[in-house]
Amino acid sequence: MRRVLILHGWGGSDFPHWQSWLSSEIAKDYGCVSFLKFSDMDFPKKDVWLEELELEMQRFHPDTVLCHSLANILWFHLCNKQKMQEVEKLFLVAPPSLSCKIEELESFFPCEVPKKLYAKKTLLITSTDDPYLRQDEAQELQIALHVDMKVLQNAGHINTNSGYGEWPWLLEEIKK
């Protein structure tokens, strides 16, 4: 099993969110997983989260990273600093719009699309009805990042509210 780093977004990803489920599934098979809990999840600060992520990257040395929601933007900021090791696999799940205007998240924006994602293989996973990212924005992001994209039908923000607790497909993708 890979060394998997799971990064939650705004408000966290407590059980029964798919990230929590995935973390326990990896661990129960003696897999190596870090489900990083960022500080002040409801009122995040980019500089604080970025420092926490950089420390975890140095400590844990993941080869697979899964970002959900705001964690995608955090990953972009880290990539734009150009101070990191490349990972084998990167999953960018339900990123918010790069023009997000949510007051609690203002320290994360604006955010430039990184020229390099520091991953050998990247998959962008979006939904046709994500309230935080229109499908045309998702397609523009895919083109700008030069990555493959999987579009889920009517999956909302790909979280607990849209039925994503257990997500066996993603677990299998990690194992490949």
TrEMBL record:
Coiled-coil blocks: none
Molecular functions per Gene Ontology: hydrolase activity
Gene3D superfamilies to which the protein is assigned, alphabetical: alpha/beta hydrolase
Name of the protein in question: Serine hydrolase family protein
